[in-house]
Amino acid sequence: MEQAYYSMSEANLPEDQFSLESKLESLLFVAPSPVSAHQLAEALGVHTDEVEQGLRRLSLIFQQGRGLRIQYFQGKYQLTTPAELALLIERFLGLEATSRLSRAALETLAIIAYRQPITRPGIDAVRGVNSDGVLKSLLSKGLVQEVGRAEGPGRPILYGTTMDFLQHFGLNSLDDLPPFELLEQEGVSPEEQKLLKD
């Protein structure tokens, strides 16, 4: 028996039978890279405000024990999986566990995450040691990126975190970083907190 194949366009299902959240979920699923609310609004023919509200509602739905999350970074959205399922997904895909980050790399990432954009001399001032090597490693791993140049002598490069940084640490956005008050409970001295904040 010959099997018939139909394209989605041939099915002629009315679009209006789907909620805004369902449409957003579909668009995020097929998007090859992070997309802005404006791009989604244009595709859907609605206002950007409606898209942003729909994304918030969809994000809340996903947080109710679902296997997807919406990640937000630098004005763009992407569909991801929860960090809690990373081991399951790695095992399913046959991936080896990602290499662990050194203490120096974690320290440098924390400085960049909380103080971005920041220059390498700024990172060195907080750490008290040269950060060239660890910064090159973080750049090669795609966890940090060059985001511009500072005004001043030599116009040093400014660094910030990336979407891969959020994915590596299971964050939906930079707003999910722990507040500084929690850092004190984790043994970070007030002086070190001040260096990270200032």
UniProtKB/TrEMBL annotation:
Protein's GO biological process: cell division; chromosome separation; DNA replication
UniProt entry tagged with the keyword Kinase: no
InterPro entries assigned to the protein according to its UniProt record, in alphabetical order: ScpB_csome_segregation, WH-like_DNA-bd_sf, WH_DNA-bd_sf
Highest taxon of source: Bacteria
One Gene Ontology term, aspect cellular component: cytoplasm
Main subcellular location of this protein, as a coarse class: cytoplasm
SUPFAM superfamilies found in the cross-reference section: Winged helix' DNA-binding domain (SSF46785)
Record's keyword annotation contains Cell division: yes
Record-stated family: Belongs to the ScpB family.
PANTHER family, per database record: SEGREGATION AND CONDENSATION PROTEIN B
Task performed by this protein: Participates in chromosomal partition during cell division. May act via the formation of a condensin-like complex containing Smc and ScpA that pull DNA away from mid-cell into both cell halves.
Name assigned to this protein: Segregation and condensation protein B
Originating species: Bellilinea caldifistulae
Name of the gene encoding the protein in the UniProt record: scpB
